[in-house]
Amino acid sequence: MSTADAIPTDLLKRPKRADALRNYEKVLAAAREAFAEGGEATALEEIARRAGVGIGTLYRNFPNRQALLEALYLGEVEQLCRSTEEFAGAEPWEALTGWIGRLVAYIGTKRALAAELMNYLDTDAALFATSRECLWSAGEPLLVRAQEAGVVRRDITIGELIQLVVGIVKIATAPEQVDRLLGVALDGLRYQG
């Protein structure tokens, strides 16, 4: 799967009409903001109000809470996967660490969303498998490029690198601790020759 393909369209269904797409995007933006503020306690009615649409419009796009959560989650994964394109012209080390920075920000803000999705899905669900595949496909070319340039050790895979970053974000108790631990980990990632 290329980053241009990102998330398969059968998992992330967007409306085709311009007005319907606008409402879809407004609901997602309002949901992203509302869930960030209120977490699992956020009511769908509140999301519709924030989006400036009726509850029927919300349900037309997202028939239930799970569908809305899945669309939010997949949209964020897709955005992260596509962000690799921004690093195409950067030096290999800067490209890799720039994307890792985006990954850290993504993980830090999506923990509550993923936790709520776990109320509906198990860790082997297609949603999570597809998301992992997308992240690996997006990040692997950056890692390989850095390895081929001789700036990153060759004995690490993209799966291990993502697992390392996720672990750091999950165990850190403050943003400055994430920065410190990530800095130590990235120092260990550099090729020592």
From TrEMBL:
Q: Which Gene3D superfamilies match?
A: Tetracycline Repressor, domain 2
Traced from the root, the source organism's taxonomic lineage reads: Bacteria, Bacillati, Actinomycetota, Thermoleophilia, Solirubrobacterales
HTH tetR-type domain sequence ranges: 21-80
Show the InterPro entries listed in the entry: Homeodomain-like_sf, HTH-type_TetR-like_transc_reg, HTH_TetR, Tet_transcr_reg_TetR-rel_C_sf, TetR_SbtR-like_C
The residues the entry assigns to the signal sequence are none
The record's Pfam families line, in alphabetical order, gives:
TetR_C_43, TetR_N
Q: What is this protein called?
A: TetR/AcrR family transcriptional regulator
Keywords associated with the record: DNA-binding, Transcription, Transcription regulation
Feature: DNA-binding region = 43-62
**PANTHER family assigned to the protein according to its UniProt record, in alphabetical order:** HTH-TYPE TRANSCRIPTIONAL REGULATOR BETI (PTHR30055:SF234), HTH-TYPE TRANSCRIPTIONAL REGULATOR RUTR (PTHR30055)
Domain of life, source organism: Bacteria
Q: Which SUPFAM superfamilies match?
A: Homeodomain-like (SSF46689), Tetracyclin repressor-like, C-terminal domain (SSF48498)
